[in-house]
Amino acid sequence: MEINKALKVEARKSYSVSPDELYKAWTDPEQLKQWWKPMGNTLKEVTNDIKVGGRVRYVFEDDKLIISGEYMEVKEKEKLVYSWNWELPEDAVRNAEYKLTVNFASKDYGSEIHILQENFQDDETLLPHQQGWEKGLTDLKEFLEGSNTGSEDKKDDAQAPSAESGGYREDPAQVKVGGG
User: Fold this and answer.
1) Does residue 30 fall inside a structural domain?
2) Suppose 7 and one of 66, 87, 120, 131 were both cysteines; which one would form an S-S bond, judging by CB atoms 3.0 to 4.6 Å apart?
3) What is the dihedral of CA 127, 80, 54, 41, to 10 degrees?
């Protein structure tokens, strides 16, 4: 079986937390268990020896999914490159070996993560992985900013036009002046 190295998935998301907090949420076993649930699976065991040649291993509930690999490059709190081997004991056809590169960057608003997953075997496997990363990074955002995202939603609701103002974003005093 030949792997097409040109096939890859990229995902990127911004966060209003420091790069250190983002990195810790990505690498700390207890934090990972709280937010990361690929395909709805709950993470129960984490091995994360973050050094070149160190092991990474994630075991999910009922051993339905195991992800294992080895760190190839480590720039602490900046970049991690490692093999990303999916083992689905109940579905051997879907087992796969990937290369994962994760970059953590500081931005004016906080931080950003950029994921590059390489070594896909065919086009058909790209979309599920793209969707999986998008969901995972959104779940990470909710974990890191849970109260912030809720307050932003409330702020947006407060700015929505009301029936009293006729759909305009007026100050309530202006509505009264207009004969309201």
Assistant:
1) yes
2) 120
3) -40
Q: Which domain holds residue 97?
A: 8-146
* pLDDT attached to residue 18: 96
- What is the spatial order of strands in the sheet that 110-118 belongs to? 8-15, 110-118, 96-107, 79-87, 66-75, 55-60, 43-48
| DSSP letter assigned to residue 64 | S
Domain with 24 in it: what CATH number? Answer: 3.30.530.20
First to last CA, the chain: 73
What's the pLDDT tens digit per position in 29-70? 999 999 999 888 899 999 999 999 999 999 999 888 899 999
pLDDT score recorded for residue 94: 58
Residue spans of the chain under pLDDT 50:
1-4, 93, 149-180
Q: Compute φ and ψ for 61, nearest 5 degrees.
A: -45, 140
- On whether residue 52 sits in a domain, the answer given is yes
Cα separation, 36 vs 41, whole angstroms: 8
- Residue 135: phi and psi, rounded to 5, are -65, -45
Read off the pTM: 0.74
What CA–CA distance (Å, rounded) separates 65 from 62? Answer: 8
The residue type of 23 is Y
* Structure confidence at residue 114 (pLDDT): 98
